Amino acid sequence: MKLIDKSIDKEGQGYVTLIPEEPEDMWHAYNLISEGDSVRSTTIRKVQSESSTGSSTSSRVRTMLTISVETIDFDTQACMLRLKGRNIEENQYVKMGAYHTLDLEMNRKFRLNKHEWDSVSMERVEMACDPTKSADVAAVIMQDGLAQICLITSSMTIVRAKIEASIPRKRKGFIQQHEKALAKFYDNIIQGILRHVDFDVVKCVLIASPGFVRDQFYEYMFQMAVKTDNKTLLENKSKFMLIHSSTGFKHSLKEILQDPAVVSKISDTKAAGEVKALENFYTTLQCEPDKAFYGKKHVEKANEAQAIETLLISDNLFRCKDVSLRKEYVHLVDSVREFGGDVKIFSSLHISGEQLEQLTGVAAILRFPMPELDEDDESENGD
């Protein structure tokens, strides 16, 4: 998603102008737009015109419209968003208050105006516009004297660093020079990885090369990590994966990402954190039921006691038509973060999101047991 313009005042009222560039951006737009918002974009309108002789002709004209959104439909197959609402700005082709349907498509600019931009909406804009936030796979493609560090999102690849070095050949009497240059080259790659790869977000780091270059580099990197006690590399060792590529250039990424071993390793990495959180919730529910609760009422009571360690919430709840209810969920998210808790917002399009929907769409893992929540429930039922 490309952010063209943004104007939001202290009260949280204002607009953003965006261009969806990838299929995933349409999903972000669907989660951003709510009923009651106004959206401005280009559209095609059928216009009837009457000639001086009395005959009427119809033509299709492209025009800029601003509508107050009443219904939102998302076509997951075509990745298109259909917004229906009344026209709220003067237009020579469309009367004020007339109904019109706007189709938001990829690469078509639109302006979204809200009466109140809350923290969840702002976070969604930030996530959609900053590709590194969703880049959960990194790749180091290398050969002797050349390495490229890339971040791979679900829909694009960004080259973050290109490292080139002149490495003398291994000749008799010059072995030391060769090894010195190679070590310096490897050190630069390690620094590049530490600078550009955010291990909190990235779930898998591919190291690809022709021959045995990747194996030599991997061995050197972890020898140095042990020597310098580099906790970042040592704690994330399991995320590294060695793979063959024909060259050390970026175009080799295509063959790397088609490798079946890589496909199985990185499939669903985007939702891996959410899946793990849901597994933890089910485990806690079985082993320590007083530390795992679901349903709005229980979760809110746990939050009042500042007991929530991890909040699991479906993005579906932020699309509810009841504005005050949405505000309650936004307040819950803000409050949990304020008290130092972790918040996982699940996509309702993913299988983990569907499972969470079956648990009312909101659940929490607590820092300490709260058996009184169940007791409150029982006493209410008894009454």
TrEMBL record:
<comment type="similarity">
    <text>Belongs to the eukaryotic release factor 1 family. Pelota subfamily.</text>
</comment>
<dbReference type="InterPro" id="IPR029064">
    <property type="entry name" value="Ribosomal_eL30-like_sf"/>
</dbReference>
<protein>
    <recommendedName>
        <fullName>Protein pelota homolog</fullName>
    </recommendedName>
</protein>
<dbReference type="InterPro" id="IPR005141">
    <property type="entry name" value="eRF1_2"/>
</dbReference>
<dbReference type="GO" id="GO:0032790">
    <property type="term" value="P:ribosome disassembly"/>
</dbReference>
<dbReference type="InterPro" id="IPR005140">
    <property type="entry name" value="eRF1_Pelota-like_N"/>
</dbReference>
<comment type="function">
    <text>Component of the Pelota-HBS1L complex, a complex that recognizes stalled ribosomes and triggers the No-Go Decay (NGD) pathway. In the Pelota-HBS1L complex, pelo recognizes ribosomes stalled at the 3' end of an mRNA and engages stalled ribosomes by destabilizing mRNA in the mRNA channel.</text>
</comment>
<dbReference type="InterPro" id="IPR038069">
    <property type="entry name" value="Pelota/DOM34_N"/>
</dbReference>
<dbReference type="Pfam" id="PF03464">
    <property type="entry name" value="eRF1_2"/>
</dbReference>
<dbReference type="GO" id="GO:0070481">
    <property type="term" value="P:nuclear-transcribed mRNA catabolic process, non-stop decay"/>
</dbReference>
<dbReference type="InterPro" id="IPR042226">
    <property type="entry name" value="eFR1_2_sf"/>
</dbReference>
<keyword id="KW-0479">Metal-binding</keyword>
<dbReference type="GO" id="GO:0005737">
    <property type="term" value="C:cytoplasm"/>
</dbReference>
<dbReference type="GO" id="GO:0070651">
    <property type="term" value="P:nonfunctional rRNA decay"/>
</dbReference>
<dbReference type="InterPro" id="IPR004405">
    <property type="entry name" value="TF_pelota"/>
</dbReference>
<dbReference type="Pfam" id="PF03465">
    <property type="entry name" value="eRF1_3"/>
</dbReference>
<keyword id="KW-0963">Cytoplasm</keyword>
<dbReference type="InterPro" id="IPR058547">
    <property type="entry name" value="Pelota_N"/>
</dbReference>
<dbReference type="InterPro" id="IPR005142">
    <property type="entry name" value="eRF1_3"/>
</dbReference>
<dbReference type="GO" id="GO:0071025">
    <property type="term" value="P:RNA surveillance"/>
</dbReference>
<dbReference type="Pfam" id="PF26356">
    <property type="entry name" value="Pelota_N"/>
</dbReference>
<dbReference type="GO" id="GO:0070966">
    <property type="term" value="P:nuclear-transcribed mRNA catabolic process, no-go decay"/>
</dbReference>
<dbReference type="GO" id="GO:0046872">
    <property type="term" value="F:metal ion binding"/>
</dbReference>
<feature type="domain" description="eRF1/Pelota-like N-terminal">
    <location>
        <begin position="1"/>
        <end position="130"/>
    </location>
</feature>
